Amino acid sequence: MQFDIRRFDIYRKIPKDLTQPTNTGAAISLACISFISTLLLIELYYFITPEVVSELFVDIPESGNADRIPVHIDISVLNIGCEYVGIDIQDDLGRHEVGFIDNTLKTPENNGAGCRINASFKINRVPGNFHISTHSAASQPANGDMKHVIHELTFGDSIKGFRQIPNRKAFHPLRRFNNTNRPSHASHDYLLKIVPTIYEDLQSTRRYPYQFTFFYREYSPYQPHGGGMIPAIWFRYDIMPITVKYTEHRQKFYTFITSICAIVGGSFTVASIIDSLIFTASELFKKFELVFTQRDNVYFQFAGSKRFSLIINILILEQSKNKTHNKHKRSFIPYSQKETFFAV
Asked: Which of 10, 67, 267, 288 is the most exposed place for a label (fewest CB within 10 A)?
């Protein structure tokens, strides 16, 4: 006996002549294909887009500048000229720089009445402050108005190019911060809490940006010996001992294939069940409709025949005889019953 491998075929084919297409089946098929296509596109998007996983730990990031943090500031002082304002840096290690000029660009604004300062420098990993003031000027301006606009203030590496990084605003919460509606001769104090952050992409490339929060307050500066006011814009910072790490992960390929198989198989199964239920219900309805139609046809055919008329006449005659017999039966009353009736 010759071995036939076709006996193991569990997907046996039905001749096309034995299948029956329906409008309902076509509508369900189109809806199923659209549904599957949408889910496949969504699944493909999530497979291509990396997932960012976050974790917290108590540590100091091992960057190239583990002991120092890069700072970039871009700020406009609206009512004091560039010849008066500068950057001063202080910290708890004893650092004190007045009029920091390295990597500092000053651009006059408002026809020389204001100044835009763009500077990059590094701070020690200890509590301290840096501030915009007129302390480094040879003479103090007549107008000590420190109204300002902060265009940018960031710590650490830039996050440009990392589109998947969560909560991007936490890395530059003071971007485009407008502080022009304050009193003219007030000092401005920003209290910053800096959180070290590590971002690792799919290629295991690390960057070390810093998130921070701020609290703002204003106060009138001290007037020594009744002299002129010396306002400033203070940025007081403190480094948090907790490090946040973001790591990009891509979905495994076998997980992607499993999801696709589940979507396609599940959708076709549910669609076939719905189609079977609708088809079965429609066939039952057609059968009941056919039965009632045939019964009505038989009734009307029988009603139009002579035999039906003869049967109706016989039934009417029998009914009239029964009525006459019952009438005579009620009119006859025995004598004993009459006496009983009158006696009562």
From this structure: 10
**Taken in order 267, 273, 275, 278, is the CA torsion positive or negative?**
negative
What is the C-alpha separation between 127 and 87, in angstroms, rounded? 17
Q: Which amino acid is at 340?
A: T
The mean pLDDT value for 216-241 works out to 77
Cβ atoms of residues 52 and 166 within 8 Å: yes
Is residue 197 within 8 Å of residue 168, measured between CB atoms? no
Of residues 339 and 248, more confidence is placed in 248
| Cα distances (angstroms) measured from residue 86 to each of 37, 104, 338 | 60, 9, 139
306-331 and 253-303 are packed helices; what angle lies between their axes, rounded to 10 degrees? 70
Q: Give this prediction's pTM.
A: 0.66
Contact 91, 126 (CB under 8 A): yes
Domain ranges of the chain: 56-249, 253-330
Residue in this structure with the two tokens 């009119």, named with its chain if needed? 331
What is the per-residue pLDDT for 227? 52
**Residue pLDDT, tens place only, 10-51:** 777 777 777 778 888 889 889 999 999 999 999 999 888 888
With b for 16 or more beta-carbon neighbours within 10 A and e for fewer, the 227-254 pattern comes to: eebbbbbbbbbebeeebbbbbbeeeeee
